[in-house]
Design a protein that fits this description.
alpha/beta; phenylalanine biosynthesis; 10 helices; amino-acid biosynthesis; ten-stranded mixed sheet; EC 4.2.1.51; lyase
């Protein structure tokens, strides 16, 4: 049996985890948490084998809090990555928030709640249809749906997944309310053990690079080490080191496995110019269509 920690049941994380892990002849035990810190700690403390972490979204970009936990708070290697469609829906009690004709009564909705990332994916919809409603952020989309279920008659609605609506006997008041059709979230599977359930021809390696202080041209030299070897980079992101204002580290996703000949030599060259390099993981990468 494999155990995996993720955000609450009925959330996008839950659906994405089941898409990634289920159906390979191995029993999966899911441990659900309201806060991402508890998801990380469950695996870091050995209570679960893996943690499922949403790390980047098509619309909202990187999830800074989750990135900071991965880099600063735990030491859990990345074991796999995959993408999953984030289809958000407006959820509530139809008897409370629809007209007799069956049309949605927008004016009756006084509050909409969801996870901040999911809310950001629906910004234009909320401005257009529900500009009068109060917006409230909660720990997950499924938590938002449960809060709405437990507070009938108050004009509250949630943004979340179809599975969460079904689990809580609520209706899809309006489907697919995200601002863009091409809305995907990238997830990471982190843990101490290698991931062997699935294989992929595509691999990535994520590295954390901290530049030497007061070194003009250091970032250019870092990128040159990849460039002249024709190593493709799929993502470069800067984050503060939290040690001094103006000090940053760089998260770089390399489209190459660590076992290749070129990547270790590139890292050695980067270290030779005084940079600190930490490999966060070398892992298979799965697209949504690959399943």
């Amino acid at each position: 049996m494999i155990s995996a920690a993720c955000l609450t049941k009925g959330s996008t994380s839950d659906e994405a985890a089941r898409h990634m892990l289920n159906g390979f002849g191995v029993d999966i035990r899911y441990e659900y948490h309201r806060m991402i810190a508890d998801v990380f700690l469950s695996t870091a403390e050995g209570k679960t084998d893996y943690a499922v972490i949403p790390i980047e979204n098509t619309i909202d970009g990187s999830v800074s809090l989750h990135t900071d936990w991965l880099v600063d708070e735990v030491n859990l290697p990345i074991r796999a990555e995959w993408v999953y469609p984030s289809i958000q829906n407006l959820i509530g009690a139809s008897s409370e928030l629809t007209e007799e004709s069956g049309e949605l009564a927008y004016g009756r909705i006084v509050k909409v709640m969801s996870h901040p990332v999911a809310m950001a994916q629906c910004t234009q919809y909320l401005k257009r249809r529900l500009p009068h409603a109060e917006l409230e952020h909660v720990g997950s989309t499924s938590e938002a749906v449960r809060i709405v279920r437990d507070n009938p008659g108050r004009g509250w609605a949630a943004i979340g997944q179809v599975s969460a609506a079904a689990d809580n006997d609520l209706a899809i008041l309006e489907p697919a309310v995200t601002d863009h059709d091409n809305n995907y979230t990238r997830f990471l599977l982190v843990g101490r053990e290698p991931f062997n359930l699935r294989t992929s021809e595509k691999h990535k390696t994520s590295v954390l690079i901290t530049l030497p202080e007061d070194y003009p041209g250091a970032l250019h030299q870092v990128l040159s080490a990849f460039s002249w070897r024709r190593i493709n980079l799929s993502r470069i992101e800067s984050r503060p080191t939290k040690k001094k204002l103006g000090n940053y580290y760089f998260l770089i996703d390399v489209e190459m496995a660590m076992e290749t000949v070129l990547l270790p030599s590139a890292i050695a060259e980067i270290e030779a110019i005084g940079c600190q390099v930490r490999v966060l993981g070398s892992y298979p990468s799965f697209t949504y269509e690959s399943r």
